[in-house]
Predict the structure.
Amino acid sequence: MYFDYAVVLTLTLIGIVLLAGLMGLQKLLAPSNPFARKLMPYECGEPPTGNAWINFNVRFYLIALVFVIFEVEVAFIYPVAAVYLDWVRRGQRWFALSEILIFLLILFVGLIYVWVKRDLEWVKKVPD
Amino acid sequence: MQAWLDSLIARGAFGPHPSPDLIYGAAIAIACALVLFLVAVPFASIVTWVERRVWARIQSRIGPNRVGPNGFLQWLADGFKHICKEDVVPAEADAPLFRLAPYLVVLAFILPWAVMPFASSLILADLNIGILYITAVPALTVIGILMAGWASNNKWSLIGGIRSAAQIISYEIPAGLAIFPVVLMTGTLSMQGIIRAQGWAPDRWFLFANPFCFVAAVILFISGLAENNRTPFDLPEAESELVAGFATEYSSMRYLFFFMAEWGNMFIAAAIVVTLFLGGWQFPAIVQSPRLMNLLQLATFMLKCLFLVFVSMWIRGTLPRVRIDQMMSLCWKYFVPISFINLLGTAVWVAIFPDGNRFTQWLMLSFGVAVVLLFLARVVAFTRRARMELYFHPTI
């Protein structure tokens, strides 16, 4: 058990070493000649206008909110799905099935709610 | 791996008084380094050359053919060129975040290799939550890309980063839901467990186990394309509108890291589909020697994965880019409800046939074969009609 997770940790460490090695090689080989005009933000050759840290469109936040709800749901279904076959084999199939059904139904109602509220529309029509 | 090491220690291969922790640590480090340096990094590099050659063929061009035989060493030349370039950090960027972002993206590409099931005994760590791990870890990409887009202090980067984050998180839902049919049928989350539940023959693959699985496999593959920002879903780096998306301000190694991760993730997405639906490394037991058997299984797994990688190159070479509203509605209005129905349908199916249904497997297999034959017939028909405008010789 710990052995398997030690592998994951070691892989992370070796990955970091690989990245650090490549960056170190780059530091050794690459030139470094920064000057003010080179360090300007790239806006297709035009002088940049203003800062880029601006408020962006709210629909990205909506997508992120809907995502959080459904991702948590996906995480919750994993254990249920993993033991489902055991329950079926033990003859409690309709009980297990109805539990999954109830859980999914609640979430499906959520999806329908978001849909009806038109939060899934990328281009929203403003009511006249 | 642990059992094998234990047997070696018991046989006295490491001297009379071995220290198990030291041996474990050394073995793990060597195995991880081998997988990383012999499979992951070379794959992510060489596939750039393969992809450029494949596109060139599709678009009646020649592609890179100067460095090495048929341009094979192009990937090495590109990598070396990137190492020798100046690493520019814009003056107004958030420097620590700007420097950190590519590392996160590459780590998200390196970590899934820990549970990559190459063969029946070639796997770094057969975690009992393998499939959850392999879908959870790549989510680090979102953080990296969002960080890159925001820290660059560039409008192209910001739009690219936010778009990419929205796209990746959206398609994680159908991809996550498309895994459940297989988990319901096997009752395990371990990669090896899922592959062992399938057989080497296509009729025992989960792709053909029931109609829901077939749909789930298609959804999983398309979501994989979208999660890796591949065409037709490459909006985050749409060159014609966003310069290079979140990577606009990046140069040198950091730029290379982003694209190494992107190309490497193609293999990981393909490997997930192969493990879950295409039988993984399953190969008929025609030889006795376990070593030879493992090699054959490794070849089977790699060939299946590379075929799917080739299909994604093929798609990239032929399809135009979709619009962002089309992409979002495809995810939320089609894939998510269909995945829900899939999940439910498989639950009912497993309740009725806990051990699978041979008749449906054969029916689905013949359906799959019919689809492939129809497709090939159309390819042949269109190829006959097409006029060759280039001297078509694959090894120019």
